[in-house]
Amino acid sequence: MRIAICDDENRFISDFIDIVNRLYSSLDIIVDEFPDGTMLLKNFGRKQYDIVFLDIEMPGLDGISLAGKLRELSEEIYIVFLTGHVEYALKGYGINALRYLTKPASERDIREVIDYVIKKQHNERFLWVKTGEGEYKIRFSDIVFIEAQDQKIIIYAISDRFEIRGKLNDYENRLKNDGFFRIHRSYIVSLSKVTAISGRDITVAGGTVLPVGRTKEKDFRNALMSFVNSEAF
After folding, report:
1. Cβ partners under 8 Å of residue 86, min gap 6
2. The pLDDT of residue 99 is above 70
3. CATH (residue range 2-122)
4. Considering the domain 126-231 in this protein, what is its CATH number?
5. Residues 99, 86 contacting (CB under 8 angstroms)
6. What is the per-residue pLDDT across 27-72, written as a single tens digit (0 to 9) for each?
7. For residue 7, what is the DSSP state?
8. In the chain, what are the domain boundaries?
9. Which residues contact 179 (CB under 8 A, 6 or more apart)?
10. Alpha carbon distance 21, 122 (integer Å)
């Protein structure tokens, strides 16, 4: 696991790294430290991080603006905001942050965040598909939505798409207990990738707008609420 901590307070970064090293001395966890958001943004493309801890109140590129730029680059990164003032956390609404920690972050809070991500990664599930180009292993967490077109199934992932032959019913049965919901006769969506709802239209990660079937609307909203509640900690 690779973690980035971005904060303009050297003392906080030092204390944070000491806590992580003490709690996870037996695990392969690397912590990269950044005194400002610009440096982190420059390095983000070269290294893949699992969790980013961001101070909200930084000079120059503040944590909220930085988080928005990071989210454009990765839908999968876990973002944790650090703030000395709880009211600032409200500015981060919409970034899909994992959690907000009040500074100085306690050992217990840091442990809860890292343990949560470790558990999520350990439980990561995959879907094997066969296309005309070969066989591919797709992480469930990378799937945004699945579309049925005639005799084809198109799986839209974070950074790729896969065209295969099959029936949407088969994928509905395969994925329904793993955070996916069939919103329409032609679409299955990952509930974790839903970013907005407007009437019977939803927006998913990447900006695609999909219709929710009239008979599916109530069950979809209930499923989404249950999913959000189950993911909260």
Report:
1. 100, 102
2. yes
3. 3.40.50.2300
4. 2.40.50.1020
5. no
6. 889 999 999 999 999 988 777 789 999 998 888 888 888 999 998 8
7. -
8. 2-122, 126-231
9. 140, 190, 191, 192, 227
10. 20
SS3 82: strand
Rounded to an integer, what distance in angstroms lies between the CA atom of residue 213 and that of residue 8? 48
Task: Tell me the pLDDT band of 107, cut-offs 50, 70 and 90.
Answer: very high
Question: CA 90, CA 156: separation in Å to the nearest integer?
Answer: 31
C-alpha to C-alpha distance for 137 and 9, rounded to whole angstroms: 41
> What is the predicted pLDDT for the residue at 187?
98
Model confidence at 87: pLDDT above 70: no
Whether residue 161 has pLDDT greater than 80 = yes
Residue with tokens 């980013």: 52
Across 165-190, b (16+ Cβ under 10 Å) vs e yields eeebeebeeebeeebbbbbbeebbbb
